[in-house]
Write a structure and sequence with these properties.
By secondary structure, the chain is of the alpha/beta class. It is 44% helix and 12% strand. The structure holds iron/sulfur cluster.
């Protein structure tokens, strides 16, 4: 059930949309959504400028509802960032350190395993991304994943962004195909999708010079999909991009998805400004965050899941995002450095019950999923005995 419980969701969507009175200037877009016709660049730009955010949110909410009803997905995972040492210096990044920095760190394989051991009883996914370490090539990562899989066979390893794959390949003198094949063989099971930023090389030249190009990002994901490695995709917005850049970004991902169907989830997150170096950034406001979530749902008709990434959005905005078309709220997380060094104050230590509460507060039913959206368990909070019955039992 890669698509949640979506059987014939398009028929349901057409019916739900036909039951509402939409403003006349949205008729063309509603018509396209009803017939599963992808929205165009102009449609996307129109939605970004549309005066009534509530209507856009309602529209996206209906599309989400047609696919998944009242369900919202979460998983139980831990983030471990293996190193902050990085050979690049993306302008928006508050996480990376030079090798000699006082607070530079690298987790040796035994440290990583020990760290994961603390969570291994109650998580089913480890999410690991980090800097481009100057010496960690294919041997390091295949050994890391081999040991992780051996120690924790029940834990899905979701790790490495496209630029990390490119870096490992270059350091090891391998093609992307060979690098991903070897990583998969050692235990890597999916890619988290980070580092897409904005898929426009002019923007990338300013905010993350030296990173993989737009085409390289897409090609690395294409290769992963070819090898049956599912991936997520992301968008970092609120830096220097225009609305057109955002919509084109979504269209490029949608086109690759048409070709491979390998993306599971789209994760849009705004730039968090604290402590990093991009004074020219046009920071996204709270309503813009909700608009981006809603438009992602409307533009990306072939990517099943839209995630409210609470590590970046915070719990409160994530809860609202679930009413604006998002169907996933990521996981329990436990540890995380990248967003927190950039200014995130989202709590890290959520257990299942607290995550489920965010989902219930938004009016939805929390459903625990695995990483690949192939197993689902509706979350029912434990029943706490009432005080009165305890007294009676004495
Ligand atoms: S975003 Fe990634 S690649 Fe860029 S500087 Fe930070 S850690 Fe390095």
């Amino acid at each position: 059930m890669a698509d949640g419980e979506a059987s014939n969701w398009q028929g349901t969507l057409a019916r739900l949309l036909s039951q509402e009175n939409w403003p006349e200037d949205l008729n063309e877009i509603v018509e396209k959504l009803s017939n599963n016709i992808p929205l165009s660049l102009d449609d996307g730009k129109f939605l970004f400028q549309y005066r009534d955010l509530d209507v856009i949110g309602h529209l996206a909410g209906i599309v989400k509802h047609a696919r998944y009803g009242n369900k919202v997905f979460f998983n139980v995972n831990v983030h471990i960032n293996q190193t902050n040492i990085c050979t690049l210096a993306c302008k928006f990044c508050a996480f990376r350190r030079g090798r000699r920095a006082e607070d530079a760190y690298q987790l040796e394989i035994s440290d990583y395993i020990e760290d994961l051991y603390n969570y291994s009883n109650h998580v089913d996914e480890v999410h690991s991304v980090g800097g481009l370490h100057p010496e960690w090539g294919i041997e390091h990562y295949t050994e890391l994943f081999r040991r992780t899989r051996e120690e924790f066979p029940h834990i899905h390893i979701k790790a490495l962004t496209a630029v990390e794959i490119k870096h490992i390949a270059k350091l090891s003198g391998l093609s992307i195909l060979e690098t991903l094949s070897r990583l998969k063989k050692s235990g890597l099971a999916s890619l988290p999708g980070g580092g897409a930023e904005i898929l426009d090389d002019e923007v990338r030249g300013i905010i993350c010079r030296g990173k993989e190009s737009s085409e390289e990002y897409l090609e690395i994901h294409r290769t992963a999909h070819y090898l049956d490695i599912p991936t997520n995709c992301t968008m970092l917005y609120g830096t220097i991009e225009t609305i057109e850049h955002r919509v084109m970004h979504m269209i490029k991902l949608r086109e690759l998805q048409d070709e491979t169907a390998g993306f599971q989830c789209f994760v849009p997150y705004p730039f968090l400004p604290d402590d990093s170096r991009l004074p020219e950034a046009q920071l996204a406001t709270g309503t813009e965050v909700l608009r981006v979530i809603a438009i992602s749902r409307l533009m990306l008709n072939n990517i099943p899941h839209i995630k409210a990434y609470r590590m970046n959005l915070g719990d409160e905005v994530s809860e609202l995002a679930l009413q604006f078309g998002a169907d996933d709220i990521d996981g329990t997380v436990q540890e995380e450095s990248i967003m927190h060094l950039a200014g995130s104050t989202a709590p890290l230590d959520h257990d299942k019950a607290r995550l489920a509460k965010i989902v219930s507060n938004s009016g939805s039913i929390p459903v625990q999923r695995n990483t690949t959206y192939t197993s689902f368990v509706e979350f029912n909070p434990p029943i706490v005995p009432k005080r009165r019955s305890l007294r009676m039992a004495r």
